[in-house]
From TrEMBL:
Residues 464-488 are annotated as: Disordered. It comes from Kribbella albertanoniae. It comes from the Bacteria. InterPro entries: DUF6531, RHS_repeat, YD. This is DUF6531 domain-containing protein. Residues 121-202 form the DUF6531 domain.
């Protein structure tokens, strides 16, 4: 729920971003899904003492009124928007037009990336990313699967994507990955929201708002055209802690969510994924409560038809994954009970992933540096027979020229008629030439060098060989610059 809801002015396109630090943010996804991070600080004068206390709890608060949906992940860079606070009576002490640097997850779309042990690093931001496929069961329409991804700058997840704890995002097939938003107290609807902002909206069978702790049982009907043409059906069964929400697709796939706790008067219902089934097979999930409020997925089970059984019970239930957590709700072990092999994780004091230990192997050690008050991937190491081996070392902001470096200044690239000069350089050192600290003039020849323009698009690479530097040049396919519209 939006932290500023008591003060919300109901502005269309409003997005609330409460920073707990430059590398962390939570956003009001009920209004507008936002991808990436926005580094912006607006000095705000708040006259009311009660409102001032609210701002002091979240010292970096800004609401932006613009066509922010235009700021999609494929169009990073500098954008000018009109901003204003959502607190009545508050006034800005900075100019109305503010330029912000948008920093999305910089993987793909021309951003420079490099292998980093069990994952990859986005050189533009220094963010580490890895993924894992825990379960995959071939099906008639699609595979039933569970996968996870980890990103250093991952936003707080919802009840569906956040079931593996901070930093991890869960991925399920189809509608199972959508968040269930309970708006029954507000307007009598249940909303299935995808990460891209698309929604399916269903109205209560009675067409009335919920005023107690009971969700109306029966078939719910679609509210808008997109939901109606989807062709699927939504139904509610049970009550209290046994409240179940079922979504049936036209191919026979059924996805169910259950209430985490018994619905209560005056509270929104929190749903968690319970089961994904199709003819002859299904996945169902167990959840555990850590502390007073952190629900985590603890196990996944495969229910599958067994042709060797007789009678009415022809389905076998097999545990295919189990998940363990520490006292803070962080994922520390994933086990496949069939092979009894486990992947283990540890975290550093800042909460970032520190080691990854695949089953039966020695762990990868992830080392971070600090840049602009945020963690950046520094190196990846592993213990070998002869001691610790550095698999990769990453260097940021490499100069465009200098002692031992290739020359990629504007004057130099004009030799091959390159129009746009790079603005930032990055270096990756492999295990054949490990370095402990900053590289010297004699080290650069062993590095893999990448260069980007001001927006992070990789336009040059350089590697030493054949008696000199070998270059590549990749002309950028220019992206349209989003122009905010509908400003007040």
């Amino acid at each position: 729920m939006c932290l500023l809801q008591p003060f919300c002015t109901g502005l269309v396109g409003c997005v609330e971003a409460a920073f707990a630090g430059p590398a962390r943010r939570s956003s009001c996804r009920r209004c507008l899904p936002v991808f990436g991070r926005y580094e912006v600080v607006l000095p705000v004068h708040v006259p009311d003492r009660r409102q001032r206390a609210q701002v002091q709890r979240f010292p970096r608060i800004v609401t932006a009124v613009a066509a922010l949906s235009l700021l999609v992940p494929s169009a990073p860079g500098l954008h000018t928007i009109v901003t204003r606070t959502a607190l009545p009576g508050a006034t800005l002490t900075s100019p109305a037009a503010t330029t912000i640097q948008r920093l999305p997850h910089a993987f793909g779309n021309g951003y420079p990336t490099a292998n980093a042990g069990p994952g990859r690093v986005a050189l533009w931001t220094g963010e580490f990313s890895m993924s894992a496929l825990d379960v995959s069961v071939p099906g008639y329409a699609d595979s039933l699967s569970i996968s996870r991804s980890h990103m250093t700058y991952e936003s707080p997840g919802n009840a569906i994507t956040g079931v593996f704890g901070d930093g991890w995002s869960a991925q399920f097939n189809g509608v199972a990955g959508m968040q269930v938003i309970d708006s029954t107290r507000l307007d009598g609807t249940l909303v299935l929201a995808d990460n891209d902002g698309s929604t399916l909206v269903y109205m209560s069978p009675t067409g009335e708002r919920r005023t107690d702790g009971t969700l109306t049982a029966g078939a719910w009907f679609p509210v808008d055209e997109d939901t109606a043409t989807d062709g699927s059906k939504l139904a509610v069964t049970g009550s209290g802690a046994s409240t179940v929400l079922s979504y049936t697709e036209d191919d026979g796939t059924v996805t169910t969510w259950k209430a985490a706790t018994a619905p209560a008067t005056g509270q929104d219902i929190q749903f968690q994924i319970d089961r994904i089934s199709e003819p002859g097979r299904a996945l169902h999930f167990d959840h555990t409560l850590i502390g007073s409020s952190k629900w985590r997925m603890s196990a996944a089970w495969l229910d599958i038809y067994n042709p060797d059984t007789t009678g009415t019970d022809t389905m076998d239930s097999i545990k295919v994954a189990s998940y363990s957590y520490d006292g803070s709700g962080r994922l520390i072990k994933v086990t496949d009970p069939r092979s009894n092999l486990s992947t283990e994780y540890t975290y550093n004091a800042a909460g970032d992933l520190a080691t990854v230990k695949p089953g039966g192997q020695v762990p990868f050690q992830l080392n971070y540096a600090t840049s602009d008050d945020r963690p950046t991937m520094d190196s990846v190491a592993r213990v070998g027979p002869g001691g610790t081996v550095t698999l990769a070392k990453f260097v940021y902001d490499v100069p465009l020229s200098g002692d031992g470096l290739p020359d990629l200044t504007a004057a130099s690239i004009a030799r091959w008629n390159q129009k746009v000069a790079p603005t930032r350089g990055f270096a990756i050192f492999g295990p054949d030439h490990p370095i402990a600290e900053g590289p010297g003039p004699g080290d650069w020849q062993y590095a893999d060098l990448r260069y980007t323009d001001a927006d992070g698009y990789t336009i040059n690479t350089a590697k030493s060989g054949a008696g000199g530097w070998q270059y590549t040049s990749t002309p950028r396919q220019d992206l349209p610059t989003p122009t905010p519209t509908g400003l007040p």
